[in-house]
């Protein structure tokens, strides 16, 4: 059994930042194997956006490790806490979401994570089931476990307080409620990103207060976005959505800087470290291509990953047009002598503002039928192929 324990520890530790604490984790795994009872692994996500991106999957992939080891995944949907908004990492108050917004976001979640977790073996739980019912007396007990000074020690609150930005009282409640989720679920382990550490530890404190065995806290690194600098976030426009096309995902992965490839391989794949390091060192471009194919295959299958790779090479290596070019339909009422101005195409067809369209042309990022647009006075006719931005194509269809 000792080998089984060590194997589980090795798998669990890969890619983690903190395990609080590792000795306690070993004891929990030992007891689990002895009595044949799976551990209860908690992960919470607030449905504040309809999209899950690759940054979210870092933690979800660790859940998959636990699931493959035979443990129970409790995928907690924070439909109640989403109404407060997690202040973690924020320099301003999050907007409070309506029930309708939360419900709409929830609908996409299961589908997006189904390529990683076995949905049939995952228990989805909703914290409104217990947080709506918590009595004022119990909530005061929860609040009595923490001091204001402890809450203000958090980097995000501390920075806002020092800069004079408002911190509303309801934001203080968030880590308390997330911690109480652990009590309600009697979780053995909770997993989250490093920025969630305070909230995860709050769960340990509250479990101890309510007489439960403290959960193990496991933190995972934050995935850097495609800019190679900031954390992956929709707010920073450096994210790779899960709910996209194979070609889009492939292209975005190929756009990351070379120096974060190891970061992506470690957190987003199961490729052995020695194997991917060898590929990166031999040929960085081949290494990134291998990375993109590996990730795209997980979400879309081997054939789609192969096709996405072929299309990427066709566009960026061979400088050819893609096989399938989407059509952009424009009303004939916008025509002047049977043609339409390139600025109008970018505004009407691609939703750019006038200034953004002009900036693209100035940056030499627009072509009409493979001819570079060098001034603002070019015109486009029906059937023309526009290349704009980085590897984006569209065929103009006049209605």
Description of the molecule:
The protein has 399 residues and is an alpha/beta fold. It has 3 domains: 219 residues, 3-Layer(aba) Sandwich (Rossmann fold); 72 residues, Tyrosyl-Transfer RNA Synthetase (Orthogonal Bundle), CATH 1.10.240.10; 72 residues, Structural Genomics Hypothetical 15.5 Kd Protein In mrcA-pckA Intergenic Region, Chain A (Roll). Helices cover 47% and strands 14% of the residues. The protein contains 17 helices and 13 strands. The strands form 3 sheets. The chain has a 6-stranded mixed sheet, with helices on both faces. It has a 5-stranded mixed sheet with strand order 7-13-12-9-10. Strand 5, helix 10 and strand 6 form a beta-alpha-beta unit. Helix 1 crosses helix 2. It is globular and about 80 Å long. The N and C termini lie far apart (70 Å).
CATH superfamily of the largest domain: HUPs
Question: What count of domains describes the coordinates?
Answer: 3
Structural class: alpha/beta
What best-fitting shape do the alpha-carbon axes yield?
globular
Q: Residue-averaged pLDDT, rounded?
A: 87
List the helices and strands and how they pair.
Layout: H1 2-13, E1 18-20, H2 22-35, E2 40-45, H3 54-68, E3 72-77, H4 99-113, E4 122-126, H5 128-131, H6 136-143, H7 148-152, H8 155-162, H9 169-185, E5 189-193, H10 197-209, E6 216-220, H11 246-254, H12 261-268, H13 273-282, H14 284-300, H15 302-317, E7 327-330, E8 340-341, H16 342-350, H17 354-362, E9 366-368, E10 371-372, E11 379-380, E12 385-388, E13 392-398
Parallel strand pairs: 2-3, 2-5, 3-4, 5-6, 7-13
Antiparallel strand pairs: 1-6, 8-11, 9-10, 9-12, 12-13
């Amino acid at each position: 059994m000792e080998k089984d324990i060590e194997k589980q520890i090795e798998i669990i530790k890969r890619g983690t930042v903190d395990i609080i604490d590792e000795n306690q984790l070993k004891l929990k795994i030992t007891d689990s194997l002895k009595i044949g009872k799976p551990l209860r692994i908690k992960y919470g996500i607030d449905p504040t956006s309809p999209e899950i991106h690759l940054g979210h999957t870092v933690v979800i992939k660790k859940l998959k490790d636990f699931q493959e080891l035979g443990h129970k995944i409790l995928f907690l949907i924070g439909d109640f806490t989403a109404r407060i908004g997690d202040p973690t990492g924020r320099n301003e108050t999050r907007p409070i979401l309506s029930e309708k917004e939360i419900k709409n976001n929830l609908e996409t979640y299961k589908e997006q994570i189904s390529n990683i977790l076995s949905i049939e073996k995952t228990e989805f739980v909703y914290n409104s089931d217990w947080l709506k019912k918590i009595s004022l007396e119990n909530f005061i007990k929860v609040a009595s476990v923490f001091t204001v000074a402890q809450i203000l020690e958090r980097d995000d609150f501390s920075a806002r307080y020092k800069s004079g930005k408002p911190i509303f009282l309801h934001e203080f409640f968030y880590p308390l409620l997330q911690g109480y989720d652990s009590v309600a679920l009697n979780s053995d382990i909770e997993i989250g990103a490093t920025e969630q550490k305070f909230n995860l530890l709050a769960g340990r404190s509250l479990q101890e207060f309510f007489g439960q065995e403290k959960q193990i806290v496991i933190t995972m690194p934050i995935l850097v976005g495609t800019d190679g600098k900031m954390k992956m976030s929709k707010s920073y426009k450096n994210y790779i959505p899960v709910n996209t096309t194979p070609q889009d995902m492939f292209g975005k992965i190929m756009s990351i800087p070379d120096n974060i490839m190891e970061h992506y391989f470690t957190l987003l794949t199961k490729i052995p470290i020695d194997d991917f390091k060898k590929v990166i060192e031999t040929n960085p471009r081949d290494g990134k291509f291998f990375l993109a194919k590996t990730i795209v295959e997980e979400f879309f299958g081997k054939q789609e990953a192969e096709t996405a790779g072929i299309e990427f090479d066709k566009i960026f290596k061979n400088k050819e047009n893609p096989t399938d070019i989407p059509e952009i339909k424009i009303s004939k009422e916008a025509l002047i002598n049977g043609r339409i101005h390139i600025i109008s195409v970018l505004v009407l067809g691609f939703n750019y503002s006038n200034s953004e369209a002009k900036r693209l042309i100035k940056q030499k990022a627009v072509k009409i039928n493979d001819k570079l647009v060098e001034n603002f006075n070019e015109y486009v006719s029906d059937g023309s192929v526009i290349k704009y931005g980085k590897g984006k194509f569209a065929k103009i269809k006049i209605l």
